[in-house]
Amino acid sequence: RQCICKRKMAEGASNDPSPPVALAADDGTESGGGKIFFTTSDLIARINQSVAEVSSDGDGNQATTGAAAAPTGGFELRRQMPDGSTRRADEADTAVADLQSKIKQTAAVLSALSAEEKMEWAQQQRAEGNKLFARGEHAEAMDVYITCLVAMDKLRGSADAGGDEQAKDKEDSSATASAVFSESIQREIQLPVLLNLALCALKLGMLRKAESFCNFALQTSLGADCPKAHFRRGRARMLMGSYDDARVDLQRALGLLQNANADGVDKDNGSKTNDDSSAGAAQEAELKAVKKELQKLERLEIIARKHEKDQRKAMKR
Questions:
Q1: Does pTM top 0.90 for this prediction?
Q2: 35 contacts 42 by C-beta, under 8 angstroms
Q3: Which end of the chain, N or C, is less packed with Cβ atoms under 10 Å?
């Protein structure tokens, strides 16, 4: 989607657009009011604020020349259509533009960081996303989690570059170090972030996206046997009415958790559990949640079969 910022024309105003008003110099405040990113929406709001300040008198009243003056139209985000025309951007268009801003800013920040600094930055972003999720700001959390995936790609590039710089006699050790680093990226960034994205999508009713994020998680080497990935994909599929596929996922999650309890392994990250009491309690809670979803699925399947039977009877009449 291609969006542009365009001057809104107030009713009765001239068709000649006024030149954009330059933004004021940095006053020391954080861009976007302390937010992590300065988005397209923030930029337009800042421009319109500057326009309003220029167009008003010292007391905040609209400046006038003569008896009356047309109100300032300000600027708005517009979507450019294939024929060259534009229309006002809707909420989805604005969300896409804002996310693109965040990704570009993320890439710019990461370009100046070392591999270790990129890893630290991604972990901080993941923690910030967790805070947003805890506050119920699921859409905002998704955007932050996506920047973690951008950081992950940059981290992999750093690992590959590091390997290329090694001397010939160190190629084997470099390859081993690169593999360990890649696994660390997957364990600490990629897999948990994909699982969090799937959960956010479920909370927002974005069932196809939730399924896709789980698919990506299950395609990773560490995620193939991850109970949470199967569980969340099973929930998404159940809510979409794909009951057979949902049952396969939920039963797979149940089996993995039961095996993990027997082996003392945390299947979500593939490591041995150190704190038996806390890890055991967490896995018991997960088992309970999976069994509850399977019971819900069974009820839905019964209702679906009944509806199908009633429809067949109705068609025979």
A1: no
A2: yes
A3: C
